[in-house]
């Protein structure tokens, strides 16, 4: 059991000089372990997010703040930290991640541990450039379709997964978590658990369902998972199993872009945007926790969309 949070009031981030991982019963007195526990069980961050948070502490935050008492952290310490990041020529994205992690930690210390430490709102985040989002054009989608085989089990599995990602915009981790009976056939939808353990509904089109049915008809196993490995005793596909199949399909199709599951997620969102979908709807369909994430990637429009808008809506005639 963790002790009362009030006992942490004057303790630093961690208990080991040199920033070795905290271990043993004494580690419970320090703020870092409760924070990581909070992120895992209360916020229910994904394993990938938890890993990134730990890496931010281990690589930078403990070095610059680890020996300070939490209540002693001041803006000058943060300014010194910014200077150190700039001296190492860290990218804006990397600086953003480190400062955001620090803000999350300080917010936890103030609201959960009730420590009177630096207000995280006083830490300004660097302005990130709007990312250049790559996606497949409709012509490129057709090229990939033409070059994925339609008879061999592995080819049909790839086509079924390809169409599933295009139709739903799911993350690959969400797609491979589907079971055979996840899809409600009358409504052509499924409820999945996305980031932050939040449920959302995804919708399948006829193309995706057709290839899923074809794939299932070729399988001889009884594994409940929708997408499985081949062989006598198949298991559910893992994230690491997928990239090589997509990479090979992209090369066969002659794509200059690297074909990945995440590229298809961008394709889904961008296609919706280019055809007039409201940004709030894209956010819901993509399962973004914050609409700012959606806006950062998809609020802008490409030149052709802008040109079409001018031609369609601009009218000075009487």
Order of helices and strands: HHHHHHHEEHHHHHH
What is the strand content? under 5%
Whole-number tally of structural domains: 2
Query: Regarding quaternary structure, how should these chains be classified?
Result: single chain
Round the Cα radius of gyration to an integer and report it.
Answer: 24 Å
CATH topology of the largest domain: hpI Integrase, Chain A
Largest beta sheet: strand ordering: 1-2
Contiguous runs where pLDDT drops below 50 for at least 5 residues: 1-11, 15-29
Give the overall shape, derived from the CA principal axes: globular
Average the pLDDT over all residues and give the rounded result: 86
Number of strands: 2
CATH architecture of the largest domain: Orthogonal Bundle
Largest sheet: 2 strands, antiparallel
| Helical proportion, percent range | 40-55%
What separation lies between the terminal Cα atoms? Answer: 76 Å
Helix/sheet category: mainly alpha
Q: Supply the CATH superfamily name of the largest domain.
A: Intergrase catalytic core
**Tally of alpha and pi helices:** 13
What's the CATH class label of the largest domain?
Answer: Mainly Alpha
């Amino acid at each position: 059991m963790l002790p009362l949070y009030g006992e942490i009031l004057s303790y630093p981030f961690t208990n080991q000089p040199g920033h070795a991982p905290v271990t043993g019963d004494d580690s419970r007195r320090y703020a870092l372990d409760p924070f990581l526990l909070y992120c895992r069980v209360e916020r229910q961050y994904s394993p990938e997010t938890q890993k990134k948070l730990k890496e931010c502490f281990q690589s930078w935050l403990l070095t610059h703040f680890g020996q300070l008492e939490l209540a002693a952290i001041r803006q000058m310490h943060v300014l010194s930290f910014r200077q150190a990041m700039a001296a190492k020529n860290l990218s804006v994205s990397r600086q953003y991640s480190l400062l955001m992690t620090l803000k999350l930690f300080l917010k936890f210390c103030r609201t959960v541990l009730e420590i009177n430490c630096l207000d995280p709102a006083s830490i300004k985040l660097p302005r990130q450039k709007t990312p250049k989002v790559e996606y497949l054009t409709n012509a490129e989608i057709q090229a990939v379709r033409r070059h994925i085989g339609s008879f061999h089990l592995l080819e049909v599995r790839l086509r079924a997964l390809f169409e599933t990602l295009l139709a739903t915009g799911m993350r690959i981790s969400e797609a491979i978590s589907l079971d055979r009976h996840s899809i409600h056939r009358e409504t052509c939808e499924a409820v999945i658990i996305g980031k932050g353990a939040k449920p959302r509904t995804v919708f399948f089109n006829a193309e995706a369902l057709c290839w899923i049915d074809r794939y299932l008809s070729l399988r001889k196993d009884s594994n409940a998972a929708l997408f499985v490995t081949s062989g006598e005793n198949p298991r559910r596909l893992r994230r690491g199993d997928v990239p090589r199949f997509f990479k090979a399909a992209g090369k066969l199709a002659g794509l200059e872009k690297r074909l990945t599951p995440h590229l298809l997620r961008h394709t889904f969102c961008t296609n919706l945007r280019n055809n007039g979908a409201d940004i709030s709807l894209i956010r819901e369909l993509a399962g973004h926790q914050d609409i700012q994430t959606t806006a950062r990637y998809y609020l802008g429009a490409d030149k052709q969309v802008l040109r079409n808008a001018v031609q369609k809506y601009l009218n000075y005639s009487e």
